[in-house]
Design goal:
By secondary structure, the protein is of the alpha/beta class. 56% of the residues lie in helices and 10% in strands. The chain is built from 15 helices and five strands. It has helices at residues 2-20, 36-49, 65-75, 80-102, 116-126, 128-131, 135-140, 146-155, 159-164, 166-175, 208-220, 239-245, 252-259, 262-267, 270-281, and strands at 26-29, 56-59, 107-113, 190-195, 198-204. The chain has a five-stranded mixed β-sheet, sandwiched between helices. Helix 13 (252-259) packs antiparallel against helix 15 (270-281).
């Protein structure tokens, strides 16, 4: 009898979860290297649990492709891979989303932000072979010291503009939704922005495992959603170079430039920004 009651309870919960779950496609749109793989995996698995085949799209860009490409060409010695991804993935998903927008259909978007310097560092080493195609030869001749890596990193000032301007160029320009017009709740670490039938949830990567799970459950009506930690091989084969880089302080000038952006100021408190600066100026080595 007890087993029967447990089975009935599970069946009821399963049926309720399936009924309540939102049925529209989910779009994970973000600037890259902000922890989105964990979000995609958690949402996809939650829909699998309740046996709903809901598309979960993952993309970086909706608009201003020429600007993105121009910056990539200025900083990357081998930008073809990054630009091919835009053509093959981002434009297809963008067309899908914008078609729903034109047809006045509901659109659910999840986006993330991260300490801008941490994001820039992660993006740099994730695509290191595109910045320095012959890096293995340099490494074999001991030419990639922590100081050398830092100089290369700080010299790449074009590609980071895509991240700094991401919400204006990808969300505001494409969807006419201005996140900077509405204060971000820095205490709870997330905010929902709405315009027409578009709903955009912005989460801070630093708060994902504190509030992300509950926030996503409510936003998507998925009570079974569980956050998962996904190891994406963050810096790939250049991981040892990444670790070496972290032993060297980033210049005050670079930090002040980055943390003066409205991206940093909108999503992080002054105290948090100062903590970030202390972290990057005083590496533990």
């Amino acid at each position: 009898m007890e087993t029967l009651l447990k089975n009935l309870s599970y069946a009821l919960k399963f049926r309720t979860a399936k009924i309540l779950a939102q049925r529209d496609p989910v779009y994970i749109l973000q600037m890259g290297r902000v922890g989105s793989t964990s979000i995609v995996t958690a949402i996809s698995q939650a829909y699998q649990v309740i046996r709903l085949n809901i598309p979960v799209y993952h993309s970086h860009y909706l608009a201003n492709y020429d600007k993105v490409a121009e910056r990539a060409r200025k900083d990357l010695q081998n930008p073809e891979w990054a630009l091919a991804d835009i053509e093959q993935v981002d434009k297809t998903i963008s067309q899908n989303l914008l078609t729903r927008l034109i047809n006045n259909q509901p659109i659910k978007i999840v986006s993330l932000v991260r300490d801008p310097v941490a994001r820039n560092v992660s993006a740099f080493f994730f695509a290191f072979s595109q910045f320095v195609p012959d890096w293995k030869a340099h490494e074999a001749h001991n030419l990639l010291s922590a100081n050398s890596l830092n100089m290369i990193f700080e010299s790449k000032r074009h590609f980071i503009q895509t991240a700094f301007n991401w919400f204006d160029e990808q969300i505001k320009d494409a969807l006419k939704l201005d996140v900077y017009a509405v204060p971000f709740d820095k205490t709870r670490g997330w905010q929902v922005y709405k315009k027409g039938k578009v709903e955009l949830l912005v989460l801070r990567m630093e708060d994902l495992h504190r509030t992300g799970e509950d926030t996503l459950r409510k936003f998507l009506h998925l009570p079974c959603l569980k956050m998962v930690k996904v190891n994406t091989g963050e810096e790939r084969e250049a991981y040892e170079l990444y670790r070496r880089f972290l032993t060297h302080p980033i210049s005050q000038e670079y930090l002040e430039m980055t943390y003066a952006t409205k991206l940093a100021r909108h999503f992080y408190t002054e105290a948090e920004i100062q903590q970030f600066i202390q972290h990057w100026r005083n590496p533990k080595g």
